[in-house]
Amino acid sequence: MSQDSKVREEVAPPGVDTSAPHSARMYDWWLGGKDNFAADRAMGEAFIQAIPTIKTMAKENRKFLGRAVRHLVAEAGIRQFLDIGTGIPTRPNLHEDAQAIAPETRVVYVDNDPIVLVHARALMVSSEQGRSEYIHADLRDHESILNDPALLATLDLNKPVALMMIAVLMLLKTEEDPWAHTRALMDALPSGSYLVVTHPGREFDEEAMELIRSSAARGGMTVIPRTKAEVERFFEGWDLVEPGVVPVMGWRPDEPVEDPASAFYWAGVARKR
């Protein structure tokens, strides 16, 4: 371990368990960030052994987020976002993409990692007309999220909201029923709202995905790849936006993509009737 890494771990924020890997910090490492620790990097390396291009896949997932936000703001007229599983801030942040088009856009970020809480102030820097807030909560505790004073002061739940679930539903085991937890949040939103999901796809490389699942389990993490049909279940009853649930690189790319299936995530956007 480098001296630099030791220093970072010695000054870890209260509540951060540096001995156990965390998805947000592992993702931060893949994206080139510095808010990660030895356990996160070790697990990140284990994933790289299974899928050597996983760092590039993480970046493609982030690019999709920008494309989806720009579509929702510029074409669908969305001015409110609820981002579940925000992760450590990586610029451009969601509110920066949205407010560059519509400065009045409001965003509420939600995450349960204490290190994300430390960085929350970076998420609060908003346009003069808009607003961004952060809630420290778990996606399974939807009542706390929906009734949080910061959310109620920032979002008008009588007007359309985009619910963002980017690479977060994989952290719930099947027996936890991630579909029910997502539906509880979806049901609280009015007609005209949107759901945006990305999720690791099992079919892209079943052997590699099983290796990731088992490696994560040995490290005390949950990472559950799911089939396209299982990902489509999250959108049931809502109208999928073209092109539907597709490989993340194939969802309205900014330029032609030679092999959309080279990033092992499913992605989709749907509108509430």
Beta-strand segment tally: 8
Question: Ranges with pLDDT <50 over ≥5 residues?
Answer: 1-10
| Secondary structure tally, helices | 12
- Roughly what fraction of the amino acids lie in strands? 5-15%
How would you characterize this protein structure?
The structure is a single chain. Helices cover 40% and strands 15% of the residues. It has 273 residues and is of the alpha/beta class. The protein has a single domain (54-271), classed as Rossmann fold (3-Layer(aba) Sandwich). Strands 1, 2, 3, 4, 5, 6, 7 and 8 form an eight-stranded mixed β-sheet that branches. Strand 1, helix 5 (94-101) and strand 2 form a beta-alpha-beta unit.
Helix-strand blueprint:
Layout: H1 3-10, H2 23-30, H3 38-50, H4 54-74, E1 80-84, H5 94-101, E2 106-111, H6 114-118, H7 120-124, E3 131-136, H8 142-146, H9 149-154, E4 162-166, H10 178-187, E5 194-200, H11 206-218, H12 228-233, E6 239-240, E7 246-247, E8 265-271
Parallel strand pairs: 1-2, 1-4, 2-3, 4-5
Antiparallel strand pairs: 5-8, 6-8, 7-8
